[in-house]
Prior knowledge:
By secondary structure, the chain is an alpha/beta fold. Helix content is 52%, strand content 18%. The longest helix is centred in the N-terminal third of the chain and has 27 residues, at 31-57.
Amino acid sequence: MCKLAIWLDALLTFGQTESVLAQVGQMVMSDSTAWRQLQKRGAQAVALDAAQCAAAMAVPAWQQIVPGEDATRERLAASIDGGMIHIRGEGWKELKVGGIGRIELAPSRDPLTGDMVELAHTLDNTYVAHLGGPDRFGQQVWAEAKARRWSQAAETVVLGDGAPWIWNLAGEHFYDSAQVVDWYHAKQHLAQAANLLHGEGTPAAQVWLKAQETVLFEGQAQQVASSIACHAKGKRKRSKDLRTQAGYFRDNQRRMQYLERREEGFPIGSGLAEGGCKQFRTRFAAAGMRWSRSGAERLLPFRAAVMSHRFDALWSTLQAAPLN
């Protein structure tokens, strides 16, 4: 019953868990009892995560595999993003989410042309999440990547939204992987620049945006940056914001080779992490939700395990360990 209750806790509110157990399973467990059980097993799960991170970091990435040994044909993607959850006494805090997925090509509708083409997607996605700074989160993502045999993969790529901490993390743990700024985040920045230049929702903004999307997709991020910076000179009230947008494209230009990366069979959108963030927010950031820090941290491993289809494996590991 405890296993079922915690599995439900990872999917539903504690009150909903109590109702499902009673209505479907004819089992009586109050939401407070479910909460206490979660706290006990959650503390175990947090400790297990810490041990796995320590083991993953014990051997540097460059020593993980001897060249030519045990290599695979798999191509893997890591995607990193973040979302906000409310912590009592602290306010809104960023929940960092990382995903690892296997890259496969599949017939898809080209978002630019509308044609059916072979585009890269990720399958067998697994997730980690951390409520805190990037250092520990980076260890978590690397531990998950190591479990997915990242070092043995034929090709690897890291996708993110352009935040410097993401690329610092990638440089530390995924230094030999391709790096791509997620296309959809790049388009959001382009739309912000269009609105600053021509006014939100105006025909001129839409024309400029459409033209610059093509330039950006073709890998000319520096040209986009130059265009924004040039226009900023005549927009005194908005020049600071426009220079910020220009800097975004200038600083990330090497990570914005979208046409080239797509032709290489890599994903250029971080649906892997975006989907993961949405699933975490569904459980942790619904209307009115407020969490204690320890409560959120002890539920996160179970939510990640359910999303990664690994709950049974996690539970078996916890069952085999002593419950303090």
